[in-house]
Each structure stands twice: as structure tokens, then as C-alpha cells.
Amino acid sequence: QAQLRESGGGLVQAGDSLRLSCAGSGDTFGRNAFGWFRQAPGQERSFVAAIASAGGVRYGDSVEGRFTIARDNGKKMVYLQMNSLTPEDTAIYYCGRLNNYYRNLVMYWGQGTQVTVSS
Question: Which tens digit of pLDDT belongs to each residue from 1-23?
């Protein structure tokens, strides 16, 4: 099975930008849909963004207009560009392969990367 590994998290100031990367693998990468999810302390894991095999995208309400998901099938990478970050964006961010794109059904996850936004 393909593996996913997130990177790019860190500590930033409110208003700053950050780009997360998700490195995939496997021969079927280009035919798979992927999503970004996040989990803040004491909260359930929530949907952030998704990208389909053909490049269609959708976003959670809280990040619409601020975050952008993209993919590079040649590099087997999925990206999450995060702009205008606020402390409410602080969470562990996970990349997952979507088995059902519209239901956000995740087949497997990466290990996650911590994003902390200070005031």
C-alpha cells in the first residue's frame, strides 16, 4: 500500500503563511483523491481540504479563501498552502487518501505534522 508522510509544520505568527507537504507513493497515486484534515487539542478531527484525481478541490468552511490544496502527480506530492493563519488554525494536520471523495472517507493517514500559530 502507498504511504503518506506530512512535513512543513512549525510555529508561526498570526497572519503568516505556511505550506504543508504530503509525500505519497505507489503506482496509483495519480488516480487517487487526497484530503487534508486537522485535529486541535480536545477536538475531533475535522475536514480541511480535498483534491480529486482530476484536480477538483473543495474546502472546509473555516479555511475557505485562505487555504489552497494542490497536487503534483509527477512528484507524488499533495500540498496545502495556508495563508492568513490564526491561532484557531493550531492543530495537528494530517494527509489522507480518500476512498470516497465526497464522503471524506479516508483509507489511510500520514503521521501528521504540528502547526502552531501564536498571537
Answer: 569 999 999 999 999 999 999 99
